[in-house]
Amino acid sequence: MKVLQNRFYRSKWKYIFCIITILIVPSQIAIASNLSENNNINVNTEWTNNPVVREFYVAVKEIPASLDLVNFNLTSTKCPDLLFYDLSTDRRLESLNFSINNDCQIPATSFEYTTSMYTDNDNISRISWLGQPCCVVDNNKENMHIARILIDEDMDNARLIPDGRILTLPEGFAITAFNFFKDGDNQVDFLLTQNGKKKDKRTIKQDELYKYNLDISSSNQIENNILKFYLETLFAGMCTSIVKINSTRMISSNVQVINNNESFSFILDGSKISWLGQPYYVIDHDSTGLTAARLLIDDSIDHYHRLKKGDTLFLPDGFAITILETHPHIIGCGSSTGRSGYGNFSFLLTQYGNKIDSRTINGSECYEYRLDLNGNGKNDNWVLKFNAGDIISGDLFPDDYIEINSLKLISPDVLKIKNIDEMNIFLEGYKTNIENDGMTLTVVRDNITKNIPFSRDGTVSFMDNWFTVRINSASDAVAVSSAVIISDTYELIGAVEYPYSGYADVNLTSKDNPAILYYDLENAQGHETLNLSIDNNYDPPYIDDPYRIPADSFVYSTRIYPTRDNNDLKIAWLGEPHIVIEHNSSTVVINKFLIDERSDYCYQLSMDDSLILPYGFNLTASINNSNIACLSLIKDGLEVYNVTTGDGDIFQYKEDLNSNGINDNLVLSFNVKSVNETKGSVMINSLRMISPESLMINDGDVMLATYMINIKNAGSTIEVRLRSKEDYIRNDIILKEDKLTGILNDTFFIRVNGAVEVVKLLKATDTQQYEHELIKRRVNSIKEKMPDIMENDTNITDETTSDETIHDVPVPGFGLFICVMILLIVRKKI
């Protein structure tokens, strides 16, 4: 009887939970449906999610004239965004060492990259390789098999999978849950697919661990966990059932084998590189050259585009996807129990209005549009690809809709660099050594008698373009830099400090932490500092927010310095370079540098081909019969300046930025390299532009009601501190554990998670780009278009549109999540 009463008690709560679900879930779905309606992407607007390149310094050294050798000894703690550090195990086992001699060469004997294996908290063998976490699949004294870790989540990272819905994973994998509460038990069926093909199907009970194993080390034993997760709990509702999983871990099925005492070369095929400040995708390369295409879209698996029948998604380079038909699998509010199909949809792919492909694909499949971009006679190079997600219809949705994610697009216009050495990337000439009984991997130069020279522009890149060493034109400062390609937001971790007994001092400088505080390499100057402390030693302790930044410990400082030619005064402000317009003991007026390029970067202008610049500026050129060019500067459709010029002249556009009634502040300048009457074009270089908007900083100003500004040293130094409050009120900054807390107007962020991280967020949308063909004249490169693309009408306007990013699954919604939490509390009490 007691058992029966207990069952009735549980069922009663289940009944109540279902009623709550009926009341809340439809409203959540209605909201999601409205989002879908608003996301009817057939309005011609500009595509705004283009990937951009951001280069940042990870280490800086100044070179005194009397010094024969400059040594770089980089570690995971000093360079946390280049070399990987594992917070969960406090392992920092990557290091990179090299030197620069007074001949501006890197001695081959000084180059050494070292990384070592370690065991994580789950007794899994790991290793860092080129700054990325990897799983050691197999190792011994002669070789090491490693696979990239793609997902690495703990119990706090949960994922919800509604009945019949698709959870998209990297490398084309997808999970679907169905047959909830199979045989009346707390269990569910999982279907695992890759590129739409079934890989695994099994029934998992609550609190069980799912593992998908694959023999990726060629050991003929299926023992390597490609994917695993815990089934935490199942929820049943009137409209849909949901499974909650956590601790998801996934490694790549592509294994890299590294052998002991072997010559080693890096391969750029299929990688992303930065070329002339723009992101490129490498199609292939060999000893004679490299073939690459501009990377136009690089969405992650979390970036969804939701489309209805008849919707058109306009993309860069004239591409467009139009949904023709949808045949959903999930119908209405009913369950998909007993079914594991995904449905399908048909679409049309066009470029500049011309049909280039049409296809019908199933949910969870991957689509690729391919062309022959490397001239081998085969259409084996992808130009556009995406993953198909859910295809849903029903009474709660006003229209059928489909979801696609992981959208990637490269330009069919191929860039061919005939001589790979012009990029100065050292891909060959390495040697690998496996030491310490197969636990440590070292990479050195194979020929230790041949030093590594810098290119003419003062750079040299290593391995798979992982990092670049850059020396300035005066050869008195050198920096190690890395470039990241971002489409949304990138966390740039610029500093790491490990607390001792709950306390840590963080003291950052431009020279020691150039990733987040600005260092002017060309002028060999860096004068930003950021000092703060992290403390959780309070009596009584703060339970909810244990970590704080004491107000009296926080100081940000920066100072003015002259450029090398003494023509300008510059200052770094919140990690960005600015020019000083005027300064005194009470006021400093500064303007941000938008463009500051060397003479290597050239642009070709004509009347029909203008240079688009930030803040609504664009520049056009026309040529008369005497090789004299007329340059016209337009702002927001109106001409603001024009001048006639010839070879070797300097263009200068000035405005009144200090309100003295005179246009004496240089906003835009460049060199006129050559005027070509035959081509009707003008070549310019050394482009430099500052923002026309000035920032006035006054002594005693208050920032965001929290910070106080002090101007010191006759206006040459700016200091920012936390404002003082009454003696009995603390003005500390409260830190949320494992969360990012913004400081200085969210310019920098602090996170405490076993270590103190200082983070800067890089956002693609914050980067103003100017559009034009960038030419590096010393490079023997050409642009080629495929014949089928050239047949299109080039006069058709490239009409693009923005899409609405969908990060969250519209079902079950936040309301259902609250109900789930209530149910969990009730079940625990029962």
Keywords:
mainly beta; 3 helices; disordered N terminus; single chain; 64 strands; ten-stranded antiparallel beta sheet; globular; disordered C terminus; 830 residues
What distance lies between the first and last C-alpha atoms, to the nearest angstrom? 16 Å
> What percent of residues are in strands?
over 45%
Give the low-confidence spans. 1-45, 334-340, 777-830
What is the helix tally?
A: 3
Largest pleated sheet: 10 strands, antiparallel
Say how many strands there are: 64
Could you estimate the helical fraction of the residues in percent?
under 10%
Oligomeric state of shown chains:
single chain
Shape: globular
Average pLDDT metric: 82
Rounded to the nearest angstrom, the radius of gyration is: 29 Å
Class from secondary-structure proportions: mainly beta
Summarize the structure in words.
With 830 residues, this protein is mainly β. 7% of the residues lie in helices and 50% in strands. It has three helices and 64 strands. The strands form twelve sheets. Strands 43, 44, 45, 46, 47, 52, 53, 54, 55 and 63 form a ten-stranded antiparallel β-sheet that branches. Strands 19, 20, 21, 22, 25, 28, 29, 30 and 64 form a nine-stranded mixed β-sheet that branches. Strands 6, 7, 8, 9, 10, 15, 16 and 17 form an eight-stranded antiparallel β-sheet that branches. Strand 12 and strand 13 form a beta hairpin. Helix 1 runs antiparallel to helix 3 (813-829). The protein starts with a helix and ends with a helix. 35% of the residues are buried. Mean pLDDT is 82; it is low at 1-45, 334-340 and 777-830.
